[in-house]
Write a structure and sequence with these properties.
The chain is of the alpha+beta class and 321 residues long. Helices cover 43% and strands 23% of the residues. The chain is globular and about 75 Å long.
C-alpha cells in the first residue's frame, strides 16, 4: 500500500506539472495576441517556479536505491574539542530536525548523551518519511564549523568537527540474520533531566556486534525490553547499510570518491567568521546564508550530492536544469 501510494503521488505530480505547463504556455500565447505584457510576465514567472519544481522531482526520481524509500536512523557524534565540538553537534542535531520537519517528516529522539557543560556528545534520531534515507544518506561524513567561540573569553576563532552517520530502517521485506553469540549486550542507566524512572533503573541498552565492531544504543523507552528490541532493529539496519555500501562500491568504477562519506573525511564547511559561507567540498555547492542552512535549508546541498552519486562529477544539478 505504501509503494502504491508513492506511485500514485508520482503520477499525479507529473500530471499536475504537465497541466501547469500547458496552462502557462496558453497564457503566454494569449498575452502575445492581446499585447498584454503583464499576462506574459506572470506566466513566465510561473514557468520559472515550475522549472525549479521539475528539477526537484527529477532529482527525486533518482532515489531508486534498494532502501532509498525507507525511514532512516541519523547519528550525530561530536569530535575532539570538548565543549565547542559538543555544542556544534547539538547545532547539527537541530539542523536535521528542522529539515525533517520542513518536509513533513516525523522525528523521534532514540538516545542522547549530553556534554559536560553544553551541547551533546552523541545522539540518534529516527526520521520517518517518504525517501528519508534516500535524501539523508548524502549527509554522512564530517562537518566542520568555523566561528568565534561563545565559550572563549578572549573571543578567538575556533574550528570544530562533528560527524553524521545515516543508515536505513529495514522493514519486513528485508531479512538480516544476526548470530546473538556474536553480540555483547550491556545495560546502563539512561541519561536525562530526571523523573520517576530516569537514572533509577538500568533501562538503556547497548549492543556491540563483535565481528564488525558496530555499536548501537537506545534509551528512549522506560522499559529495558523495549529499548533492547529497538536496539536490535538498529543493529540490523547498520549491518544492512554496511552491506549496501559494499555493493555500491563494488558496482561503481568511482568507488574511491564514495569513501569520502566516512569518519575523518570532511564533506562540508560552515564558516560564520570572518565571512559567511557554507560550502560542500564534494560538489562545490555554496550558500552565503549559513543561518538559513543551520535552520534546515539543506535541499540544494542534498540535490547536488545525490546527482553526483548517480552521475558522477560535480554540480550535476546545473546540467539537469
Amino acid at each position: 500500500m505504501r509503494e502504491r501510494q508513492h506511485l500514485d503521488d508520482a503520477i499525479n505530480g507529473l500530471k499536475r506539472l504537465e497541466s501547469q505547463l500547458a496552462d502557462n504556455l496558453e497564457l503566454i500565447e494569449m498575452g502575445e495576441e492581446e499585447g498584454d505584457g503583464d499576462i506574459i510576465g506572470e506566466a513566465e514567472a510561473a514557468l520559472k517556479v515550475l522549472r525549479t519544481e521539475v528539477t526537484r522531482q527529477q532529482i527525486e526520481s533518482l532515489l531508486s536505491g534498494e532502501a532509498d524509500g525507507n525511514d532512516t536512523y541519523l547519528e550525530v557524534h561530536s569530535g575532539a574539542g570538548g565543549t565547542e565540538s559538543q555544542d556544534w553537534a547539538n547545532m547539527l542535531l537541530r539542523m536535521y530536525t528542522r529539515w525533517a520537519e520542513r518536509h513533513g517528516m516525523k522525528v523521534e529522539l532514540l538516545e542522547i548523551h549530553d556534554g559536560e557543560e553544553a551541547g551533546i556528545k552523541s545522539a540518534t534520531l529516527l526520521v520517518k518519511g517518504q525517501n528519508a534515507y534516500g535524501w539523508l544518506k548524502t549527509e554522512s561524513g564530517v562537518h566542520r564549523l568555523v566561528r568565534i567561540s561563545p565559550y572563549d573569553s578572549q573571543a578567538r576563532r575556533h574550528t570544530s568537527f562533528s560527524s553524521i552517520w545515516t543508515y536505513p530502517v529495514i522493514d519486513d521485506t528485508i531479512d538480516v540474520e544476526i548470530n546473538e553469540s556474536d553480540c555483547r549486550i550491556d545495560t546502563y542507566r539512561a541519561s536525562g533531566a530526571g523523573g520517576q524512572h530516569i537514572n533509577t533503573t538500568d533501562s538503556a541498552v547497548r549492543i556491540t556486534h563483535i565481528p564488525t565492531g558496530i555499536v548501537v544504543q537506545c534509551q528512549q523507552e522506560r522499559s529495558q525490553h523495549k529499548n533492547k528490541a529497538k536496539a536490535w532493529d538498529m543493529l540490523r539496519a547498520r549491518i544492512y547499510e554496511a552491506e549496501l555500501k559494499k555493493r555500491e562500491e563494488a558496482a561503481s568504477e568511482e568507488a574511491a570518491s564514495k569513501t569520502e562519506i566516512g569518519w575523518g573525511h570532511q564533506i562540508r564547511s560552515y564558516v560564520l567568521q570572518p565571512y559567511q559561507l557554507v560550502k560542500d567540498l564534494r560538489t562545490g555547492t555554496e550558500s552565503t546564508n549559513p543561518q538559513g542552512v543551520l535552520d534546515g535549508d539543506l535541499d540544494d546541498f542534498m540535490e547536488a550530492a545525490l546527482a553526483q552519486r548517480v552521475y558522477g562529477g560535480a554540480n550535476e544539478v546545473e546540467d539537469l536544469q
